[in-house]
C-alpha cells in the first residue's frame, strides 16, 4: 500500500511468493503490540470484518491476553483486504496458510 513502511505492512507467510491460487484459504492473525488500545483494535476489526462489537471485543481481548488472534479465515483476496484495513492502525497482521484441524 502506498505510503506505508514495512512496520505497518501485513506479512506473507515465510516462503510465500505471488499467489498461485486465489482460492487458497489464509488465516488473518492480528498480533498484539504495546501501542494500540483495545478500543483501537475493536474499531479496526469492526471496520474490516462483518462482526458485532461484542465479537470484535472478544478478538481484541484475545489479542491482548494471548499475544495474537486469528480473526478470520478467507480466500487470499479477502484476507488481504481485511489485513490491509486492520494494519492501518499500525498493528502487525500476518497471513498464514490455513490448515483445518483434522
Just name the CATH architecture: 2-Layer Sandwich
> What is the number of helices?
3
Task: Indicate how many domains the architecture comprises.
Answer: 1
For the biggest sheet, the summary is: 3 strands, antiparallel
Description of the structure:
The chain has 102 residues and is α+β, with helices and mostly antiparallel strands. It has a single domain (25-97), classed as Ribosomal protein L7/L12, C-terminal domain/Adaptor protein ClpS (Ribosomal Protein L30, Chain: A). The chain has three helices and three strands; from the N terminus they run βααβαβ. It has helices at residues 38-48, 53-66, 76-86, and strands spanning 25-31, 68-75, 93-97. Strands 2-1-3 form a three-stranded antiparallel β-sheet. Helix 1 (38-48) crosses helix 2 (53-66) and helix 1 packs antiparallel against helix 3. It is globular. Residues 1-19 have low confidence and may be disordered.
Amino acid at each position: 500500500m502506498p505510503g506505508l513502511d514495512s512496520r505497518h505492512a501485513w506479512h506473507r507467510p515465510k516462503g510465500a511468493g505471488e499467489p498461485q491460487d486465489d482460492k487458497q484459504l489464509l488465516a488473518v492473525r492480528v498480533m498484539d503490540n504495546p501501542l494500540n488500545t483495545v478500543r483501537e483494535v475493536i474499531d479496526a476489526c469492526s471496520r474490516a470484518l462483518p462482526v458485532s462489537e461484542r465479537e470484535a471485543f472478544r478478538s481484541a481481548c484475545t489479542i491482548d491476553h494471548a499475544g495474537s488472534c486469528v480473526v478470520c479465515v478467507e480466500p487470499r483476496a479477502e484476507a488481504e483486504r481485511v489485513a490491509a484495513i486492520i494494519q492501518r492502525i499500525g498493528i502487525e497482521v500476518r497471513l498464514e496458510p490455513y490448515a483445518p484441524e483434522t
